[in-house]
Write a structure and sequence with these properties.
One of its GO terms (molecular function) is phosphoglycolate phosphatase activity. It is an enzyme of class 3 (hydrolase). Substrate binds at residue 150. Its cofactor is Mg(2+). By secondary structure, the protein is α/β, with parallel strands linked by helices. Helix content is 34%, strand content 19%. It has an 8-stranded mixed sheet, with helices on both faces. The protein has a 4-stranded antiparallel sheet with strand order 6-7-9-8. The radius of gyration is 17 Å and the shape is globular. 46% of the residues are buried.
Length: 226
């Protein structure tokens, strides 16, 4: 078994507990001979900046799969899903106090501060026919299209790179990484990952956060898989 690329989440996966970039994880990623794609629920410019700081080529999946780009010199590709998310947001705002995050930069979804009753919000959404869902990434609550996720984003980006999603090893920590694990060839959850991602992972590291990513890459190398 040999994999041709790695796709790795950012926050909680290649960061420290306080969200700083984990320098040993960065060093390990830089040493790899295969392409590395960053995948995040955050905005495209955040993903691109992180890719640049690490020293990668700029292939990123942002906004939970809604935005992708394969290189720094190319425009991002955005799904046309924001309008439905805005409708759901307006409806929820009638009953809950919600605060948008990065509203000027998000193109395909809405991110909210995690200071409201998510269970109540999801129950309210079920009374409507919006084609959206709410996902908690531990850093924000996302109102996103049910047709978009990191797995869909990986399949599209892999095609642009001349690869298949199965050619990738996926590394992550959160429920929004689950679809990415399912379409990739092998999924690794870091030790701080939530239960959903650990359940769909092929391997779970003992170490957490960036230390977990270092362990994950060393595991792959020891098996000769990358």
């Amino acid at each position: 078994m040999k994999f041709k690329a790695i796709v790795v989440d950012i926050d909680g996966t290649i960061t420290c507990e306080k969200r700083e970039l984990h320098l040993e994880a960065v060093k390990k990623i830089r040493s790899l001979k295969v392409p590395v794609v960053l995948a995040t629920g955050n905005i495209l410019c955040y993903a691109r900046t992180t890719s640049k700081l690490i020293g990668l080529d700029g292939a990123v999946i942002a906004e939970n799969g809604g935005a992708i780009t394969v290189r720094f010199d190319l425009q991002g590709t955005f799904e046309e899903s924001l309008e439905e998310c805005e409708k759901a947001y307006s409806f929820l705002s009638e009953n809950l106090k919600l605060t948008k995050l990065d509203p000027f930069y998000r193109k395909t979804e809405i991110a909210l501060r995690r200071d409201f009753d998510l269970k109540k919000a999801r129950a309210l959404l079920k009374t409507q026919n919006f084609d959206v869902e709410m996902v908690d990434t531990k850093y924000a609550i996302h109102i996103k299209s049910i047709k978009i996720n990191k797995g869909v984003g990986l399949q599209k980006l892999a095609s642009l790179m001349g690869l298949e999603a199965e050619d990738f090893v996926a590394i992550g920590d959160s429920a929004n990484d689950a679809e990415m694990f399912e379409v990739s060839g092998f999924g690794i959850a870091v030790g701080n990952g939530d239960e959903k991602i650990k359940q769909v992972a092929n391997y779970v590291t003992e170490a957490s956060f960036g230390d977990g990513t270092v362990e994950a890459i060393e595991f792959l190398e020891s098996n000769g898989w990358i």
